Amino acid sequence: MLYVKIQELHKRKFKVAQIAKELKISRPTVYKYLDMTLEEAKAYTERPHGRQKKLDSHKDWILAWLEEYPHLSGAQIHDWLLERYPDLIVGGSTVRSYVKEVREIYQIEKKVIVRQYEAVPEQPMGKQLQVDWGETKQKTTDNKEIKLYFIAFVMAHSRYKYMEWQTRPFTIRDAIRCHENAFQFYGGRTEEIVYDQDHLITVSENAGQLLLTAEFQSYVNERKFKIHLCRRADPESKGMIENVVKYIKGNFADSRVFSDIGDWNHRALQWLQRTGNHQVHQTTKKRPAEVFLLEKQHLQPVSSLLSYESTNNQSITRSVSKDNTIRYKSNRYSVPLGTYQTNSENLVLIEVKGREQQTLVIRKQAEGEIIAEHDISVEKGKLIQNRNHTRDRSKGIEEFKQRLISSFEDQKQAAAYFDKISKEYPRYRRDQFAIIQQVVQKYPAFIDSVMTKCMTEKLVSANDFRDIAHHLYTSNQQPVQEIESLSAKPAKHSSIKASTRSLNTYTSILGGRA
Q: What are the distances in angstroms from CA 400 to CA 246, 408, 430, 434?
């Protein structure tokens, strides 16, 4: 295909540089194919590099991976080869060159996304550990999709990495458990740990005075390490862990098939040993595993694991929305009114019980009182609401209506009128009744006449009721006001006498005859 495209563009009078740019290949490759016949090109493509190479026996796998996942990098292809063939000895540059030429020959384009980071000063040994969370979507062995969550750690000096995965969002206990596992993995802890402003560990930055969640603050006090919290919208201040999260997603997790979480974590540790901590780091130009052997001596020792293991019932946190609902698996579930509080953390714990018919149990605190319980819906985009969690609006409106009816002499007629308003404006009946209440308070002498007029003319609207009342009031008050104003005091200029002139004066002004 590449040979045919090059020859076609050449016949259309494209220059070599233009052909290379159009097909995204090098100019030497263009010259090489222009000098070949079709038979020579076929023979050449059967051996991707023109002569026998070390990776030719693995060409089918590499080509299949690139065709299915065109975005794979040479480093990831290298890792996949080592995973499939543990005894294979080949350098990273060899794999990259081989993959590059296979891409050119079979026209498999790769889109490269470049992200810029500000340079971060090198940290001394044992000084800093950076931590962040991430999530991915993976294909499963039964061709379904699952969402996975992970926490990643990286030593700021050696770039030595650790990660841990689970199939549900992290709780604070999960985070603490993973910290303990990381300390055991590293054989100690650093003086300082860097975090993003994650809701699991922080409540507020508070102008530099960090407010941590109670449980995490207790853990920090126990382990006695310093906290450095990155400012919002400033990922470059923790660029190392940002790159690690990207590396884990793009190299280990990308296009890998999930079977179960135990196997996934086992393969993650193998990847760290084989690739994540073994490959030469592009910034330090050293292998993280080798540098860590020196850095490990500068870590603070830690005692045995603390008892912060996650509970077996998979209790996880959820944020309460302003409408007093929480989200679980694409649905909304109600909680009692008043659960959401302004300027509060607004977190609840949820627990899934049962097997065939699962139940969602919601608590404010672990092992605390159950505030809500719902059957879990298998549908998506639904609001599952307990009627006990809603406001009883009907009782308040009904009382309001009865008070208004008692203001009229013909209460039967008034009740019929308000029923019509309720039917005509079911969503705005409270607003309609409020307007009529204002009329009753402002024009009490006219409300019975207005009611009769509205019923006769079939004017079913509080605004019509108000306008008629105002008209009756003004039409009855205007004559009285005029009489009162005339009798109350004389006109402002009543004592002034106008001067008179003779007719001859006006005749002379107009130029007429006297």
A: 60, 14, 8, 9
